[in-house]
Amino acid sequence: MNGSNYMYSSADYDQMAYQQMSPMEQTVYLLITIYFLIAGWKIFEKAKQPGWKAIIPIYNTYTLLKILGKPGWWLLLLFIPLINFIIMIIISLDLGKAFGKSTMWSVFLLIIFPFIGVSILAFSKAKYKKI
After folding, report:
1. How many helices (H) does the chain have, and how many strands (E)?
2. Other Cβ atoms within 10 Å of 81 Cβ, number
3. Which of helix, strand or coil describes residue 101?
4. For 4, what's the count of Cα atoms within 13 Å in the CB-facing half-sphere?
5. Of 102, 108, 96, 115, whose CA–CA distance to 38 is shortest?
6. Rounded to whole angstroms, how far apart are CA atoms 127 and 130?
7. Could you give the CA distance from residue 31 to residue 23 in angstroms, rounded to a whole number?
8. From its phi and psi, is residue 93 left (phi > 0), alpha (psi between -120 and 50) or beta?
9. Which of 5, 53, 71, 76 is the most exposed place for a label (fewest CB within 10 A)?
10. What pLDDT digit, counting tens, does each position of 98-128 carry?
11. CA-to-CA distance for 91 and 70, rounded, in angstroms?
């Protein structure tokens, strides 16, 4: 025991990890974050939702659930360890289905390679089809 009585939250650890990044890593992290915000905005617009809803944490997930025809209370399931993993897989599969993509497409390009899948949904001619 080192005698330290400090308690850190997960946000503290995230902040410490970010501070330990080099300026180049921080820049790349920021650019990737901005890219996903823009892609989310475009996906929401294709689903006939205001794009700004995609950039508000938690509310964006609630809106996505509504886009996919899921009840809003599913948002609470995302705060339960292990259950959240299953719910995110279901959300990814349903998002692919909402844009006319197959289950296999969704598994590979929204779950395994989300940078590619989200890019295709946001910037291609993929059209939203209400589920």
Report:
1. 7, 0
2. 6
3. coil
4. 4
5. 115
6. 10
7. 12
8. alpha
9. 5
10. 999 999 999 999 999 999 999 999 999 999 9
11. 9
